[in-house]
C-alpha cells in the first residue's frame, strides 16, 4: 500500500476512538447513552466499528456520524430501527433526520434542538417564570444545562393549554399518568435486559421505546374517541 494512502484520515488506529471517547463526545446531546446501546446497535447491523487485534472496538468519524443519525432519528422521530436502517441503506447519513419527516410519528414535524434556559423560553414564546412553574409541578427537571426537542414540545403544549386556562397545576394528573405508564413499560421491558449482556440491555431499551410509541398511539386514539362524545 502506498505510504500516502496509509495516512488518510480515519485509516489509522490513532484516528479512531474508543467507545468511552465516543460516549464522551456525544454526552451533551445524549446524556443517557451507554455502552449497551452501542453494542445493541452493532448487533442489529447499524454500526460496524473496527476491532483491534485484542478485540477492542474503535470508532471512526463516519461511525460517530452514523450513530448520531440513528440516535436523533429514534429520539426526535420515534422511528423503529428497521425504518432507520432502510433509510440509511437508501440515503446514508448525508441527509438530516428531518429529511425523513414524511414518515409517520408523533413528533415528525419537530427538528432537533439544543437550547439553554433562555433559549427554551424564547423558542416556546414564554417567560422564564413559566418554566419555573413547569419545574415546580414536575413537567421539567430543574438544574439542566441544555434542553432538547422533548422539553420544547412540553413547554409549547403547556403554553397552549395555559392560554386556555389549563395551567400546570391543573395538569399534574397527566404527569402522574405518564409516570405510571413509564413504570409499567419498564416492568415489561426489564426481563429482556440480562445482567452482563450489553446487547440485551440495548434491546430492552428499544423494546421499551416501541412500547411507549404504542402507548402514545393508544392514548391519542382513546382521547379522540372520548372527545367525540362531548
Automatic annotation (TrEMBL):
<keyword id="KW-0238">DNA-binding</keyword>
<dbReference type="GO" id="GO:0003700">
    <property type="term" value="F:DNA-binding transcription factor activity"/>
</dbReference>
<protein>
    <submittedName>
        <fullName>MerR family transcriptional regulator</fullName>
    </submittedName>
</protein>
<dbReference type="GO" id="GO:0003677">
    <property type="term" value="F:DNA binding"/>
</dbReference>
<dbReference type="InterPro" id="IPR009061">
    <property type="entry name" value="DNA-bd_dom_put_sf"/>
</dbReference>
<dbReference type="Pfam" id="PF13411">
    <property type="entry name" value="MerR_1"/>
</dbReference>
<dbReference type="InterPro" id="IPR047057">
    <property type="entry name" value="MerR_fam"/>
</dbReference>
<feature type="domain" description="HTH merR-type">
    <location>
        <begin position="38"/>
        <end position="91"/>
    </location>
</feature>
<dbReference type="InterPro" id="IPR000551">
    <property type="entry name" value="MerR-type_HTH_dom"/>
</dbReference>
